Amino acid sequence: MDRALLIGVSDYRFTKGPHAVPGKLPAVEKNLPVLREALVRAGVFTDEEITSLPSPDFAEAAQELQRVAREARGLLLVYFAGHGAIPSGGDELYLQLRDAHVLAGEHTVFNGAVSFSDLMGTVLVTSRADRIVVILDCCFAGNAARVWEHFEDKRRVGLLMSVQANHRIDAGDPGTPTPFTENLAELLGEEDGTTVSRLATRLRERMAEQKRRTMRKEAWEPQLRADAGADVQLGDGPQLPVLAPDGPGPSGADPGPGPRPRLPVWVAASWRRPRALAAKWSRAWRRKLSRTDRGGGKRSSRRILLRPALPVLLALGLLGVGLYLLLGPFSRDDTHCAPPLELRVLTDPDLEKTFRTAAAAYLTSDANTTDAGCRRTGITVYSAGSSDVVDALRRRTDAWQEPEGAEVNPQRDIGPQPDVWIPASRAEADRVLEEQDTDAVAELEPEESPLAHSPVVLAVPERLAPEALNDITGRPLTEMIDALTGHADDAAVRRPDPEFTDSGLLATVGLYGDPASVAQGERMVRQQGPPSPTAGDLLCDLPDDDAVDDRTAALVPEFLLVSGVDCEDNTRTPRWALYPADVPGMDPVFVRVRWDDADGDDDSGDDETDRDAAAAAFRDWLAGAGGREVLARQGFRDPGDGELFAPGRKPDGVKFAPSPLDESAGRDEMEQALSAYQAYGGPGRVLFLLDSSGSMADLWQGPSGGPGLLRQTLGGLGAEDEYGVWAVADTGDGPYETLLGFGRHGRKDAEEAVDERARVRDASADPHAALLAAFDEMEDRGDDGRPQMVVHITDGQHGEYLTGGRLREVLDRAGASEVPVTVAVLGSGGCDEGRPDQRIAEVSGGRCLDAGDDVGAALHDEIARIGTGDD
How many beta carbons lie within 10 A of that of residue 599, not counting itself? Predict the structure, then answer.
């Protein structure tokens, strides 16, 4: 019998207070009926074979998981949608049920949540299903992959995850299913029968077409883990064997040949499943269930787990031995492939796609395959903001290895401790080595030679190209921009975020030229709102408006003009590359990172020597023919002579061997450019509007309440920044009351003032009048180039104050003021498309945050972008 268990947690019991989950998820409520209908319509299950659990508590979910797993024989599908969480010191993923709450201190405890380890252990120990598919739709879903890797008996388990590791995702419109599940259901209905690997590929393609982004503003990429050769048929198409000859590996790539032929998985599992591992997960699950089950749960759980174990193992073992003796070498699998050592590779956000592609090719290469067809190494490629990575490797390595609190946690904000770092420039590694703490627990060993080269070019729209192409190389960047804008008054130039990706920082080196030219360089790339996070995002954002795309040049690495970007479409304006003489290029370099006391995992048996060997093998492959072939397809140049690796792939707008090109960036010029960018315009100005009306009464207390949220953001402001706080409630003397006058404040004094004076009023709020007054206030402060922002913390209940002509007046002022408005809505749906807060944030170039975001962290990031604080 095939069985499916669909768990969707939309309604949480603890959503307020210091130990609460982030909030309810109304979109998840729509997931279960939509997915159930899709699975039935596609012929994957009958309606009777599906069990739906809307918002169960821990005990109910645990019991149903065991029951359904025990009953399944053919296909078992387990689906979870809801809040996912990870502790501050590890990779484990916790799936939060209805009664979830968090206890944080020296250690983080997730009550009312099931760890993914326990879920895997339960289905492996309890179920006799031939094929198991686990689907996770939650924040941090990709973190389950690292747990999956450490289970030996996983060959029958395919794991489909909604997003890559260490990423939070938006639940979307509360009136529709979540974006991942909505696409999943649609794809199930598009064809008669599909496989899990094809489903994962189509999901990635669909999310890229929709330009979906995670909460870190990076591409939203569903992930798949399945053992080499194992794929699962879903639907009424022609059925695949239990283990197909070929199938997706950990990265979703074709794994190539493996040991063949193989026994069916249900036979192989009978002698390969380690009894000690099964007993470990059995005991852990029984202990957890016995604490939460009512009325004799401990006895029943023991009976459920142990009663079928002996006869099943005995029967399957005898059957396996019989088949082995009968079929002999024709079906013999001579080697049990142990889980490969997992190598963690951290890279620049603009390079993530390139090195994921390289890793996928390496995984199935001869260099990574034993004589028996087993993989030597698995590779996880991830990225994070370049300045954050440099800072963490300089000063935060101890917190990276052992996080002590929520404020500084590189494992959460960047990702796991890397074994390999591939920055886009050797200068980044030199910046770390020059100023690394003497007590750092990470040792960096950069290679001398870069892996490839890609110039950072001024990519000019075809309409402007005839005038611009008179001098393709040999001129400073600022001269090229002056010439471009001289030919077309409406021409503009954009650059990606210099703090997030090295391509933006390298372009900034040329923009500034010398310290006296910072203001001039920033005026050349001035735009409304924040810059695009990466060069790939920039090239994707421009076509959203044909008029903007047609007149805007982009400072991007040249390889993106050769390989293209994920959002490529027919309406994109063709671009031609200009090669500035003073802009250093991207020179990705391989850096081995060793961590003090980084003992190998007891289960995998690896140690530092094995990790060194794995890193060295990957480095040699990248620098050799295999790596050069991948880098050639991606559009990179030879680091020696600067010529394209694959000249046959040169598009019309790219020069084969441009000369002269600026040499690699120096450590000091990168450091100076970043410091100048961060200091440009002087200290920031922020005006906080705190909704203090009666409707905020239930959203006032605790760290996630209005005043608590405001206090959390003050760490992004420094002693030189100016800010003030208004309490927005109409008490008869005007639309607001001043809690903290505009000026410079010590953080402690500011927090005390908010604590003492902020209180809920028995009055309504008039955000229309308060926002207009805020724009007047910021305008009176003058236009001196200093960064400014208005922050509105509210419950989003504005009544008639932000409708019709009043809303139009606020939108007009917001668009004209050039002061971004960041709105933090303490509730769900406040930032849905077309809502007043969302429109105000969008037209002003700000950002709208609601329950779908981690509001505290996101708001702190927005403030830190304006202020000069460092915590």
Answer: 9
* Rama region for 133: left / alpha / beta (φ>0; ψ in -120 to 50; rest): beta
Neighbours of 314 (CB within 10 A): 11
Identity (one letter) of the amino acid at 110? F
Mention every residue, 6+ apart, whose C-beta is less than 8 A from residue 585: 453, 454, 455, 456, 506, 557, 558, 661, 662, 664
Q: Which residues make Cβ contacts (< 8 Å) with residue 329, sequence separation at least 6?
A: none
Phi-psi region of 689 (alpha: psi -120 to 50; beta: other; left: phi over 0): beta
CA 48 to chain CA centroid, Å, is: 37
Which candidate, 2, 6, 58, 60, places its Cα nearest to that of 33? 6
Give the DSSP letter string of 73-114.
SSEEEEEEES-EE--TT----EEEEEEEEEEESSSEEEEEEE
Chain centroid, CA 203 distance in Å: 16
d(C-alpha 837, C-alpha 718), whole Å: 28
What's the residue count for the chain? 871
The span from the CA of 712 to the CA of 859, in Å, is 9
Are 336 and 322 in contact, with CB atoms under 8 Å apart?
no
**DSSP structure string for 545-575:** SHHHHHHEEEEEETHHHHH--TT--TTPPPE
Task: Please give the pLDDT value at position 315.
Answer: 40
Pairing of strands 420-422, 456-461: unpaired
Give 10-residue mean pLDDT values along the chain (871 residues).
93 77 89 93 90 91 90 93 79 88 63 88 86 94 86 82 90 90 89 79 90 84 78 58 33 32 27 34 40 35 33 38 35 54 92 92 90 85 91 91 72 86 95 91 94 93 70 85 84 92 94 74 80 89 81 93 69 83 93 80 58 95 94 90 76 76 81 85 87 91 85 83 92 88 89 89 92 92 78 91 93 89 86 91 88 76 73 41
| The pLDDT of residue 319 | 37
Q: What sign does the dihedral 42-45-48-52 (CA atoms) show?
A: negative
What are the tokens at 643? 């010529």
* Cβ 313 vs Cβ 498: under 8 Å: no
DSSP 165-221: TT-------TTS--HHHHHHHHHHTTSS-EEHHHHHHHHHHHHHHTT-B-TTSSB--
Q: What angle do CA 751, 753, 757 make, to 5 degrees?
A: 125
Q: What is the CA radius of gyration of the chain?
A: 28
pLDDT at 626: 93
Q: Shortest CA distance to 459 belongs to which of 373, 542, 516? A: 542
**Integer distance in angstroms from the first to the last C-alpha of the chain?**
55
Distance CA 577, CA 653 (A): 6
Which residue(s) pair with 50 in the sheet?
4
CB atoms within 10 A of CB 47: 9
Between CA 323 and CA 269 the distance in angstroms is 13
- Helices (DSSP H) in 251-402: which residue ranges? 265-272, 275-292, 297-306, 309-327, 352-363, 386-395, 397-401
Distances in whole angstroms, Cα of residue 310 to Cα of each of 282, 284, 302: 14, 19, 13
3-state secondary structure labels for all residues of 618-676: HHHHHHCHHHHHHHHHCCCECCCCCCECCHHHCCCCCCCCCCCCCCCCCHHHHHHHHHH
Asked whether the beta carbons of 51 and 3 are under 8 A apart, the reply is: yes
Tell me the one-letter amino acid at 320: G
The token duo for 278 is 């099964």
- Can you tell me the distance from the alpha carbon of 157 to that of 5, in angstroms, rounded to the nearest whole number? 15
- What order of strands is seen across the sheet that includes strand 223-225? 50-54, 3-8, 75-81, 131-137, 157-161, 223-225
